[in-house]
Amino acid sequence: MNHVFIIAEAGVNHNGSIELAKKLIDVAVEAGADAIKFQTFKTENLVSKNAKKAQYQKQTTDKDESQFEMIKKLELNVDAHTELMTYCKKKNIMFLSTPFDHDSIELLNDMGLDIFKIPSGEITNLPYLRHIGKLNKKIILSTGMSTIGEIENALNVLESAGTQKERITILHANTEYPTPMQDVNLKAMVTIGKTFDIPYGYSDHTLGIEVPTAAVAMGAQCIEKHFTLDKTMEGPDHKASLEPDELKAMVKAIRNIEIALGSSVKKPSISESKNIEIARKSIVAKKEIKAGETFSEDNLDIKRPGNGISPMRWDEIVGLTAQKDYLEDELI
Hints:
By secondary structure, the protein is α/β, with parallel strands linked by helices. Helix content is 37%, strand content 16%. The chain has 2 domains: 257 residues, TIM Barrel (Alpha-Beta Barrel), CATH 3.20.20.70; 48 residues, Type Iii Antifreeze Protein Isoform Hplc 12, CATH 3.90.1210. InterPro entries: AFP_Neu5c_C_sf, Aldolase_TIM, NeuB/NeuA, PseI-like, PseI/NeuA/B-like_N, SAF, SAF_AFP_Neu5Ac, SAF_PseI/NeuA/NeuB.
């Protein structure tokens, strides 16, 4: 059975507080996620002083502050990373973080991260991709806003830098928060998997849990989803995130679908086999039949239970001679 790798994306929903970050870790653990993911960046390296905010960020944060000011408040320093990673180990959940610049890649590599998550915005950043590719780590590559050609280019950079393709999982994504249903285009996820013959998954920014659950039914091996302690908190991503109960419900739904997918063999299951006799039918006498009479459409019927001759043999039985007397409803 394929275990779907579920990443609970805390992102910057800790609002710059270690205590909040730890509470988010607790929620991810309780929900049954495999990993929790934060974001690692130096604001000075990430955003130029005059960069504007995205429309969704203007709606969810103070519209008068710049993107630089907003992001600076959400930065986690080196000590915070170490503390959160230690806390994750204690809680038995994988610590992940997305690096947004070269210093952050080095920091996470020094911390011994197993998996490097490349966000959608960096898929066209050649020096960044080359830097991560050189590390030869497992990579999860998000593909929001990108074309198949751009994904191919990014894969080529990662591979030629030194990462084997087998170590890469590609996530279909849409970088609008929240993503409108008509823009999800979940079939494209399967296209990615087939085009590159690579494990695929889905990073979800829709409201609710139906789409990531459907993605698992369509073969996603990795699901990433933003979550928060409370959607009404101040900050850019809370509004498009799941609350703790919803995260729990999503993980439960995915684990159920995982089990329900089963094998691809069609045969009676163990649980239903006992019902075959009860639900199926057999050929029976419609009325009394004497030995020597001919079985016909008039004196035969088909009724439950299914422990006699199968009705699929109807044509064989009609026209034969009865070898004994039958009462009404008796199995032939």
